[in-house]
Write a structure and sequence with these properties.
mainly alpha; 3 helices
Amino acid sequence: MTIDWIATLQEQQEFVKTIADDVMKTLMSPHLTTVQASRLYRTVEQGAQTFDRIIDEMEQANLDEELNTAADEIADTWTNLSIAAANKLRALRGLEPIAFPTDDNDTA
């Protein structure tokens, strides 16, 4: 069976955009509980892991760089959602957020 990678990535892009909108609205809710934030984080992580399996399949198929770049952008969105959800959960627990250095601080 041949996989239509363009259609697959288009579907995944639309899906992650919808999820991103929902996740960000939920994270902004002043009524979000720790339990809800934890559940949201787990759900985002499951979505990211599912997309990781798609990337694994793509790597085995040895596809064009354009498709890999598109997949990387989708994966980045999942990563950003995961970090946002984790940081909200940490904040609700009274912990410091996860911080990553910016490119401005990169000395390499």
